[in-house]
Amino acid sequence: MASKSSLTPPPVPPELHVTNRETLLNSLRRHLSESSRPLHGFVFLQGGEEQNRYDTDHTELFRQESYFAYLFGVREPGFYGAIDIATGKSFLFAPRLPAEYAVWLGEIEPERYMVSTVYYTNEITTVLHDEYKGSGKPLLFLLHGLGTDSDLFSKPAEFQGIDKFDTDLTTLHPVLTECRVTKSDLELSLIQFANDISSEAHVEVMRKVMEGSTSISWKAYFFTTPTCMVAVDIAHNHILEDGDLALLDMGAEYTFYGSDITCSYPVNGKFSPDQALVYNAFLDAHNEVMSTMKPGVSWLDMHKLAEKVILESLKRGSILVGTIDDMMVERLGAVFMPHGLGHLLGIDNHDPGGYPEGTERSKEPGLKSLRTTRELQEGMPWEIQILFKFFNYEAANRFKGSGGVQIESDVLVTANGYKNMTKVPWELSEIEAVMAGAPWPLDKSSSGEKAGQTTATSDFDVLSKI
């Protein structure tokens, strides 16, 4: 039986998306003014549509398009939204649905979304022409731009009658993406709850992992531990054996805003000397990166710091030989950490904005996988990821086939440093104690930890705050 959570989901602030729209309006008006362009026209977005599973009548679970969710918070499919740049008025356009829709799925209540007015989708052209105060055709700023994580383009809105408008496909995407990089206090409260409930679920799964179980059973248990949550998938349906390390990459989402947490621990509850050596190498990197985090610090520099600490730890363990400087020049760190340090976190697991316009990815091994090279800003939420893959080369042959270690925390950049939003065991002694049945958080007075000692974490999701 899954343990009942002690946490209560916080209410979603009704002004959350009003605040997000105001953030966009301020940024877009500033951008237009600096470009000597008139402050009129409409931000116009199309929400997501329901999808059937191939050619069946089975409807897949609907999840709103993320930019639309950020601005309007609408949970249902088939909507459009508009914001008048001149007046700040906001509009939702709801689909006309047959009467039987409410019988099966309940009534849609668009008034809860705190916009100026709600109309039907077949009224878009008439309403926007009536609201427009400029000359000529009304101008629509449509969302169209490249996602630097997916390498896919967002789809601009389409509707019958769009030919009666002028359209701009280049202005909105970079401005709106930049708005999503930093989070308001309202957004951070939802991300914190997603972290709290996910941390609680990870601890419960940690207590239940045993030999003979599979990753499917871990996911199922994680899913039933928190309420009203969506679990992020994990990789393989591997049957665990004595001596294995379990690596669980799971996180919950609450009203669009998510978390991303990975824990690694031995199935039998005790780290072997080799497992401890590798795990601590990445925990040390995690701690060093955390200690440097503050506004103005380069994400690229933190990634290289993580590589350096890992190499130093593995050299102390006699897995590597040579000088650390030579290893860094030869990019040896990319062998152990082929991915980037982490990513922005928010409505999407990999939130957009990693590479603003005018920035380019490195071509070097390891660095080319970085999801961003930004400098940290206060209010940025990040997921930080420290991962080790064991390779079969002579100096580390005994690790062949052992799997890997990954530690992920969700971290908020603050004015003077950081706040770790994730609350799971990271130290070896903490993990082994929890797996042996100790309560979490541990009683520091009885566990032998020094007063004031902070819990270490690895692999970060980083958040920025407005």
Automatic annotation (TrEMBL):
Residues 443-466 are annotated as: Disordered. Keywords: Dipeptidase, Hydrolase, Manganese, Metal-binding, Metalloprotease, Protease. Its EC number is 3.4.13.9. The keyword Metal-binding applies. It comes from the Eukaryota. One of its GO terms (molecular function) is proline dipeptidase activity. Residues 12-151 form the Aminopeptidase P N-terminal domain. It catalyses: Xaa-L-Pro dipeptide + H2O = an L-alpha-amino acid + L-proline. Its cofactor is Mn(2+). It is an enzyme of class 3 (hydrolase). It holds the Pfam family Peptidase_M24. Signal peptide: none annotated. Homodimer. PANTHER family: PEPTIDASE D, PTHR48480. Belongs to the peptidase M24B family. Eukaryotic-type prolidase subfamily. This is Xaa-Pro dipeptidase. It comes from Malus domestica (Apple).
